Queue: 3 jobs
Job 1
Amino acid sequence: MTPPPLPFTPAAVIFDMDGLMLDSERAIIACLAEAAREFGHDLPEVLWLSMVGHSEAVCRHLLDEAIGEVERDRVLQRSHVLYDAVVAAGVPHRPGIIAMLDFLDDRGIPRAVATSTRRPLALRKLEASGLLPRFDAICTSSDVEHPKPAPDIYLLAARSLGVDPAQCLVLEDSPTGVRAALAAGMYPVQIPDLLEPDDAVRALGHTILPSLDDARRLLEQRLAFAQAV
């Protein structure tokens, strides 16, 4: 089905990081599952998938319910060691991210990152993957009081760029991030990664696309329309 055209010409584009720009969700889940197995916990995949897009506090709570606080701490500490090695090697890009950033560069459209990852790790991941210099602002869960799905991080990104939230296009992979963008009064486009949108997510009424390349084409069509009128 052909997606609806963008109803406005964005003054800025705000990107989620994990699962949208970086193929990191699979790596995070793999490290958590491996750490849990090392301590004798063979936890179901549905538990790991339920953490996608959520803050560290939410993930810790989910692990608390599954294995208790003491085991949670052991698993998380081990998973951080495993994941640090992945980050140091450079987390692979998601398809289409470089073409999208080049497209925005060519047209002088400002951009920011809005991620639920804490700032030190977010900066390491972006730097190791070569994406850090491509953004005008980096906003993380360390910088706001309330994480996604609260709108705080997206509102901060808009302020950092000096752009009205209503003029921001948001690119997200997770339902949690989509809800945060909508709460901020922004226009989200979802490119799902590990989580396929269910009926409740689709009922939000936002645009859902298969890839970043599709999102770039949607934006390109809007810019061409704006130039023609």
Job 2
Amino acid sequence: MANEDKKDFNAMLHDNKDMPKFQTITDQKSIEKYGGNKMFFAPPIDYDQVMKKIPYGKVITVGKIREYFAKLNGADFTEPITAGIFVSIVAWASDQRSENKTPYWRTLKANGELNAKYPEGIKVQKEKLEAEGHTIIQKGRKNIRYYVKDYENSLFDLD
């Protein structure tokens, strides 16, 4: 996202854009990739509500949140692009609030990767996760990425 300082992320958080909704996909490659044709779209506020449930010392991935929404709503999968955007909106909306913060830093990308699109990037997410007892490891030489070591052991179960 760009120009975060000029955007009202809390307004975006509460704009449901006609969601929740379902869509039937017909592209065979996508059906095979996602395991079905019934795609669910969750509104941004739903991501905020789930991300608020993740307790101190625990983490979750965007993929696990997507699986939870699909299961909860009888869909084959939750749409991945809006999921990533909405998780970022939750983070920025929380950053803009002085109270009722969402612990967005506990929501990781696939394989436990930290999210550079969060407020103040990797640095703040790394600091907050380390303060909760997680070890952050660096991978790569040119395209450096950061991950929570053994994140699977700290995954929060939404069910």
Job 3
Amino acid sequence: MQFQALLFDCDGVLVDSESITNSVLCSMLNESGWAISSEECLSRFIGKTVRSQAALIEAHTGQPLTDAWMAEFYARRNERLSAELVAIDGALAAVQQAHALCAGRIACASGADRAKVEMQLAKVGMEGYFAGRVFSGHEMPRSKPFPDVYLAAADALGVAPAQCLVVEDTVTGVAAGVAAGATVWAYFPSDQGHASADELLAAGASRVFPDMGQLPAMIRAQE
């Protein structure tokens, strides 16, 4: 097989979390004085950590982005995710088959905080496939679009980045995978709403695909 390891993003690839997180963030930004729409919030923050956008938030709210504000955001976000989160259609089967095809050499490499990633994987029944192989951009020198989290995942699996397939859904994430030296495929459902197929391809994705259930067959086709 062309690929020796698969590195999955989490939000928007494995779990349908982005609309939930965006709703919480948009509400809190409005409460803080930034009259931002849900659509603009998604466009500005998708694939990025909230802390990395501190200067932008402070410029629009006129208030410092405090640890207390972030703690409230995490708490409100996690409460909603715990109640509402579901897996992306076809993602669980795709993870199961990828795990078998790659002899267990799969990892989850997310820009989100570890607690969120591990909670989400557990909620949708995927945690066992990624046990000991969850990597958070919060724990790296730099988060996406820099390649650090994907380089760390590849290194932990003992596979050269050039032999890894990264599955992403955002321009930021695609750029991170490409910068790591991996092949990147972009999951692009028709209702994605935050990037076009052309933008994902321009960021370096070698292909886009609309259905996570198609992923195992696409991988097998590389044999």
